[in-house]
Amino acid sequence: MSTAEYAVGTIAACAFAALLMKIVSGTEVAELLTGIISRALNTDA
């Protein structure tokens, strides 16, 4: 691959990472993960 292809790939990877960070840092995802963890820890068996 040429340097230009590496640059485009790097920019695309950074954009994808930024999108994932925005999704994961949202309140809905945080509440969902908190609910999953609390249900997993509250094993009343």
Automatic annotation (TrEMBL):
Pfam families xrefs: DUF4244
InterPro entries found in the cross-reference section: DUF4244 (IPR025338)
Name the record gives this protein: DUF4244 domain-containing protein
